[in-house]
Structures are given as C-alpha cells and as structure tokens.
Amino acid sequence: MSFDVECVLPCDFCPSYRALCQGNTFHDLFEAAKDVHDSECYCQLPLGDHAWVLTEKMNQPSLAGSEIPPVGSRRVDIDQEVSKLSTEGRATVAWFFDGEDSDESEGSSSDTLSSTSPTSPSSLATRVGSEGSSGSSPVKFGQSIFRTGGNESTLPSRSLTSYQNVLSSPGVVWVDRTSCLMGLEEQADFDNRLILVHRPAGFGKTSFLATAEFFHDVKYRDSPVSRSALSSTWIGDYCAAHKCIELFHADLVLTFDLAMTRVTDFERSLVEHVNTVLKQFLCKYQDELKFPPENMPYYIYDDGVTSLAAVLGLVARTRRWRVFVCIDNYNTPSLAAKDTADIDRCLQRFLVGPLSSYLDDLHSGLIMGTGDVPDLTMSPYHQLPSVWAPVAHDLTEDEMMESAFGFTPDEVHELAREFKVQGVESRLEARTFGSDLDKSYSMRDVWDEIGRQCRERDIRNGNAI
C-alpha cells in the first residue's frame, strides 16, 4: 500500500528542499524527489547509503519542518522497502544526506549530522567528545565526521559542506585559518590575479578554499554566529576571524572543481562542468543579478565556448558586484593525462581565456593544486609559460600562505591537549614548502594519529564498540 512521504533533500540553494512523493523503497523516494527538484534547480544532489525517517508517532509540525533529523528519528537503509515500516510507525518524513557526512549511531541530533551544501567550513572546526563519554565520540572536521571510537577512523569527506552549521555549533575547537584571508584581501587591492598554491593531499586545500568561499559570499552576510561557537576553544587568530565576519561577504562566488572532469573526452566533460557550475551560479544569485531563470538559454550555451564570458559580462554590467573565483584541483586533469596539450587547449578555451578577458572585473580568487613546489612554468623568464599564467601568480612558497595549510607544531600540541593524547608529532613527518617557511604537518596525518590514540585509549578503558 503506497502512501505519501515528505522527502527532505540537501539542496544547495534551499537548505531543506521538500517534495511529497511515493515509492516502494527509500531509494525510489529519493529518485522521485530528485526528479521534482531537478526540474526547478540545477544543483547536484548527493545520495548516501541511508535515510532518516520521522515516524507518524512523532510527527509534529515543528519537527517536520526541521532541516535535519530531530533526536529520536530512525535511520534506515536506502534500499529498505517503505512498506516494511509498521503501519503505526510508517514514515511520513524522510531526510536524505550524503552518507559520508552522517554519524552511524542510532538516532541523531544537530551535533552529529549535517546536510551537504557547496559552501563550507571556515576555519577548521573539530568537535570534541565530552569528558567521560563512551563509545564512538565524533570529532568534526569541517562538517564531516571523523570517528575516534570503534575500530575505524573515517577521514573527512572531500565535499564542501555547510559552514553556517558549524558557526551555530557549541563545543567546537576552532583551528583558525581566517588570518590568511586578510593578507589575501590586501594583495587583491593592487593585484587582482588569482592566487595559485600547491600543497600535497591532506594539507587542507579544499577546506581553506571553503573558508574563502564562505567569507567572500554575499549570501552569508547575515549568517548568525552563536555565542557558544565564538566562546569555544580557539586555536589561531581570534581577532582576524571576527574581522572577516564583520567586513567580508561582498562578492558573488564562482567555484569550479576540475576533479569533477574526466580526462577521457576532456573537452566535453569540461564543458558540462562549466555549464553546470554557471547554471548553479545564476540560480543562486538571481536576486543580486535581477536574473530571470527563463533567460538561462541566452547565457549558457551547449558548446560552452561563450558561456563563462556571457555570465562574467552579465555580472560586470551590474557595476555593483564582483566575482571571487575558486578553482579546486586545477592540475588534476594534467597529472592524469599522458598528453597535456589537449588539456591546456581546452582550459584556455573554456576557462582561462574568458577569465583573462574579465580579469579587471574580478575580485581575485584562489586556485588550488596538488604538489609541494611552485609551478616552474609560471616564471616570466620561462619560454613555455603555464596556461594559467595570464590569470594567476604562484604563491606556493610565499610566507603569506604559510598559515593557511597544515598544522603548525604549536597547533598540534594544542590539539593533543584538547584530545588528551601525547606525542602526536613524534610519529609524523614535518614538511616545509619554502626556504623561509616554517615546518607544518599534514592535517590528515594529525587526525589519523589522534584517532589512533583515542581508539587505543577507548580499548584500554573498555569503551570500544
């Protein structure tokens, strides 16, 4: 017997997109709700392995309107049949989330579950389990769960997630990265080229990019900051973070992630990615741009040749807004390809060329890539400059970027004190990325070591699951 289920989806532009649907399984419900969503919005919805349901017994209007499953809701497998729920406890509301971002304990709360969104963590936020808590106390990295109990540690998801949820979370430890944003803002005053930086995997490139996205985005100008969050343990420049919160949020943010493209048939894949991102951008900022969605075909072209230029031109003509450009994993296609000539040709045609034409109308931006040395082809004295040279300058070794990536020894010591572990850095290899820069540790390695020690402590204390 079919019945209506209100499905709540983690839409990028509506915190809790809702659709009334029917289906045999929760996967069917998600697909039906996604079809309704996709007819109205261009964002790409993630699908995890589980859904969270609110039973009829608990179905109060205030709970049904929640953006996240309330305490007492029940988790079910995405392939479970809806009819398997008893008649008296049948699902009337179902939440769908990226599986990497949900805690595995029964029941849920706003402290352990968050919806997925493309703009995310500021600084780095980590949740500390309360003293004396047993079992699997979650540690939050950005908005992803890093489990310290049980037999496994879950590395943070690569996806960018909702930063404002972190701002309203009590009991977090902030490892601040906003001080670097102030230096980048001063740099943009006299040079609005995009800043290109290399770091190895695990040093927080995507997290820092998410920080920049949030603090530049006009959509978060009025984001509430809870007293509990700002009164939490703070590692880093607290004053810089406050200044960012007060002074930034003045741009339209445009983010590309070249890891989303395919090396095989790269041109088609890049065009699809660029057009999808631009559609999301126009939908998100339609109020600021006074852009009616029905005009989309006049700006987004199937061949992609003039799509980016058309959108940047639209913003420039407002004479009010500027675009802050973020490009993540910029060199992923080049590193994966045997021949980079075709990759460079496509990048020049669909990304770099349009950006260079409107460089004076941009409010700078960031380009992140894997590696630990500057791109030597960015040198003005090199005969074969990088395809990115017209729009970016490489600050991989610049002192200004030192505080943005990895953990310093002092930060590792402070984190160790918070989690009551010892000798974290003694098991790790420190790295330096310039002759005048201090050493730093991989964020991923630090979390792995903290998680390992916490799990061993739980086993000794008999708290492991």
TrEMBL record:
Q: What InterPro entries would the database entry show?
A: AAA-ATPase-like_dom
Domain annotation AAA-ATPase-like: ranges: 167-349
**Annotated region Disordered: where?**
96-143
> According to the UniProt entry, which residue ranges have a biased composition of type Low complexity?
107-137
The name this protein carries in UniProt is AAA-ATPase-like domain-containing protein
| Native source species | Armillaria luteobubalina
